[in-house]
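Holo prediction — 2-acetamido-2-deoxy-beta-D-glucopyranose.
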Amino acid sequence: MIAIRRIFADRFIAVLMLLLLWHYFSPWAIVVQRRLESFDTASKSDESSSISTKPAEIPQEPSRGGDYIEEKLGGSEETFLRLVGTASKPPNISRDGAIRMMYHIEKGEDWLDLIEGQDDHIVQRYIYEKQHPPNCGSQRYLILNKFPGDDAFGLGAIVQRISDYLSVAIQTNSILLYATDTPPGEHFLSENGAPCGRSLDCIFQELSNCSSKAQKGMTSNIQSAFSGEQLDLDVEAFLAKHKYPIPLVFEEALKKIQPDVTREMLKYWWRAQAAAYIMRFNRNTSRRLKQFRLGEDTKQLGIQWDVDGNPRDVNVSFPLPEGTISMHVRHGDKGSEMRLVPFNDYVVRAEKFTAENPLGNWKRAFLSTEDPNVIEQMKTMARITPFSYSGSNSRWTWYWTDIPRLNTGPETQLKEFGNRTDLTIKWVLQLVMAIECDVFVGTRGSGWNRLIDSLRCTWLASCKQPFLEVGFEDDWMGYGP
Ligand SMILES: *[C@@H]1O[C@H](CO)[C@@H](O)[C@H](O)[C@H]1NC(C)=O
Ligand SMILES: *[C@@H]1O[C@H](CO)[C@@H](O)[C@H](O)[C@H]1NC(C)=O
Ligand SMILES: *[C@@H]1O[C@H](CO)[C@@H](O)[C@H](O)[C@H]1NC(C)=O
Ligand SMILES: *[C@@H]1O[C@H](CO)[C@@H](O)[C@H](O)[C@H]1NC(C)=O
Ligand SMILES: *[C@@H]1O[C@H](CO)[C@@H](O)[C@H](O)[C@H]1NC(C)=O
């Protein structure tokens, strides 16, 4: 009796195991799951095509100083959403033409011309129009003050934080402006007595062609404030709750194209769009960039190894030759936040790429970094991988800019090297030269690399070109804080 029972028990366990194995590994189980998933996404896309309703998680009644926004998609949002997914005309500007345009910016509209026909040009136009209304009198403004301790931040970090406020402004039908007494990122600018004060409006296109009296005299313990038509929203509480806010209109738009777009992608995409809007440099900056780019007040340097293995100086062409590889080596103070990737890893990754694509790529790279040791290392580096493994040519041609470098955080460098505005523009030049390139080696764990990625994808057509990640996945999952 006992023996029979045991046999039953054994059989039962064996059958159970088989069932479990079937459940987890049978192709049929996978098919069933796929069907369920596609059913899910189908029902989601149904929802998103009947827009104009507010999302379910946003409560109906806003309370005083609440941490949520009741958002309705109005006429301009409906118009925007109708444009999403319609085929746009291909850009009529060549690669070189687009690069040259960035060095010839005269007015804000030039940026719209530059990106006309790019994937997301309607997004930039929408933000531009929100921030540039036909009349300023009846508007609500969101005024942004300096962030606590923001002089420890790099440009990438500041822009990323401003993008949260730009999102709130769009969602609340307000216009974002910088405070003038203590604006965010003032440490990037020298005192110059201009009406823009020390705000980013001095080097970038003004956020808006409206201004508000409330920009002046904001006390330092306030982070942001509405002026004009009031709104019961505690912006900081809202941001603390919704960590990476993307305006609803853009979330709807992306879901229309890709119903299962991930939250990470929404966050990364919005930051790219916001950075591209916030950082449109103005006429003065564009002119200064051009001077630096062509070697006035700063040197553009290049070396190439000849067949005897001796380095010789070469000129840096304008724009950089097609197919140039951008390497941004993030060292500096970043070691406290992420593991630093040695310069060799960048070069090996790029050599592997050129070996895999020998017909389309010469070994030519533009190097940017704040670490002077990386520049010294580069000057002695003809190649890493053995010649037999190399693709098109065996030795590297290196390009770089002779800007002052100190392997520290931004504020130490700004203090050290004199004219803050000029140094900031030299850094912006490093970004612009990086996006003159066509292949990108870097790590998304670094805000500066994310900026390069953001700007190449919104300002230029080079988003379809490869980005080669050299970092550790753990460092960039979630694309930074
Ligand atoms: C691109 O097209 C616009 C109008 O569609 C035109 O005004 C502009 O001159 C064109 N640009 C170039 C470089 O051909
Ligand atoms: C702001 O700029 C936009 C676009 O350039 C223009 O249509 C609008 O009239 C301007 N608004 C004011 C108040 O000047
Ligand atoms: C641009 O430069 C001119 C002349 O140097 C100056 O008057 C003007 O205030 C500058 N504009 C900005 C926005 O800084
Ligand atoms: C580099 O530029 C200088 C100045 O424009 C020119 O004289 C020189 O011939 C150029 N060198 C090469 C290798 O093109
Ligand atoms: C600092 O650089 C800016 C931008 O190039 C320039 O307008 C300004 O005159 C410079 N200031 C000083 C004190 O040299």
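READOUT: The beta strands are 141-144, 175-178, 224-227, 300-305, 311-313, 325-329, 364-369, 397-401, 439-442, 467-469.
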